[in-house]
Amino acid sequence: MAADTLLRARQFFQNGKYKETIRILESEIFNFRDNFNFYFLLGSSCLYSGDISGASTYLDRAHQIDPDHINTRIGQAAIFIYKQEMEQALKIYLDILEMEPQNKRALTAIKLIKKYTGNEDYVKYFNAKQISRLLPAQKKSFPWGILLTASSLVILGLIIVFTYNFPKNVQRLEKDRFLLPNERPELIQLEGDFAFQLTEKEVKDSFNLAKLYFNEYKDNLARIEINRLLNSNATNDVKNIARMLLDQLEAPSFSNYTDNISVLDFKNYPLLYDGCYVIWKGRIGEIKLGEQNIHFDLWVGDGNQFQGVVKVVLNFGEKLKNGDWLEVLGQARMDTENNIINLAGQQIHILPMEK
Question: Domain 263-351 adopts which CATH fold?
Answer without folding.
Answer: OB fold (Dihydrolipoamide Acetyltransferase, E2P) (2.40.50)
